[in-house]
Amino acid sequence: MKKNLFSLRDLTNEEILEILEEARRFKRGKEYPIKNKVVCNLFFEPSTRTQYSFNMAEEKLDMKVINFNAQSSSLNKGESFYDTIKTFESFGIDLFVIRHSKTRYYDELKNISIPIINAGDGMGDHPTQSLLDLFTIYEEYGHFDGLKIAIVGDIKHSRVAHTNIEVMTRLGMECYTSGPKEYEEACYKHIPIDDAIKNMDIIMLLRIQNERLGSSEHLQISNSEYLEKYGLTMDKVNKMKDSAIIMHPAPFNRGVEIADDVVECSKSRIFKQMTNGVYVRMSVVKRSLGLWLL
Ligand code: CP
Asked: What is the pLDDT at residue 214?
């Protein structure tokens, strides 16, 4: 059966673990050509990692790929989001991958009969980012139960934080947040940054989501002050547990939430997350096309 993927809240823990298991098989070299299917990637909001790792995943699956270019499209002549998607549906596309700045954009697409993978919706969800984060954590530790993670930075405007805290808690992890109080959410457990550094298994950094801030939400603080107060420097890295790791969904801002020399330090798994994103997306594409367990 063809399946949408809008939010990980729609999946059971077992389904999530199955997706990760298939991603692991892809990483180990499993081949699964899907030559006769056409996927259309529609990114109405900027992206490097998500868009092009979906491209890479689809190419590795031998699919035919159309990349929609919003800038040169008839959106500029007033065509609506819904009519754009409906147009591609009429072409006979088999799968959509969609990113849009509107939270829950997919509520508008209930009439669309083709499966949709959500590549990020406003401040809502980023399910494939969370899946690749989970994959990276599982690869490191071999389990989720009891692992402690602090997500540090702009929690309020981050779809990655919202998706991760829900699913990681459900899988038995202890989740905390830290960073500027203006960007924290009262519903999550706060941890002071110094306690997080000493006690966590995973420090996940987030950039300030400037593109989503209201006019009064910008912090009156320099980049170097931000780094000193809330960011991760090598001084802080040296206080982390030996086994602890650093993650970041990226894009990252060197010298703001992460010091230049931390990006590729031995504890950083940031580029490994990007590598794993390709395999997780292969798994998700296969599932959404109804080819699960084939
Ligand atoms: N992590 C992430 O979603 O990056 P992009 O915005 O570059 O896709």
From this structure: 76
Q: How far does Cα 60 stand from its chain's mean position?
A: 20
Ligand 1 mutation pick, 54, 98, 129, max ligand atoms within 8 A of CB: 129
Q: Is 47 in the pocket of ligand 1 (CB under 6 A)?
A: yes
User: Relative to the CA of 120, which ligand 1 atom is closest?
Assistant: 3
What distance in Å separates the CA atoms of residue 286 and residue 3, rounded to the nearest whole number?
A: 10
Sequential DSSP letters for 244-266: -EEE--S---BTTTB-GGGTTST
**Residue 99 CA: which ligand 1 atom is closest?**
8
Segment-wise mean pLDDT, segments of 10 residues, the chain, 294 residues:
92 97 98 96 97 98 97 96 98 98 96 97 96 98 98 94 96 97 93 97 93 79 95 98 98 97 98 98 97 74
Please report the pLDDT score of residue 293 as a whole number: 66
| Ligand 1 atom nearest to 126, measured from its CA | 3
Which pLDDT score, from 0 to 100, does residue 220 have? Answer: 83
- For 32: left if phi > 0, alpha if psi spans -120 to 50, otherwise beta; the answer is beta
pLDDT (0 to 100) of residue 210: 78
Ligand 1 center to 46 CA (angstroms):
8
Q: Is 220 exposed, middle or buried (0-12, 13-18, 19+ CB in 10 A)?
A: exposed
Alpha-carbon span 278 to 261, nearest angstrom:
26
Distance from C-alpha of 292 to C-alpha of 130, rounded to nearest angstrom: 20
Residue 45 CA: nearest ligand 1 atom is 6
The finding on whether 101 has its CB within 6 A of some atom of ligand 1 is no
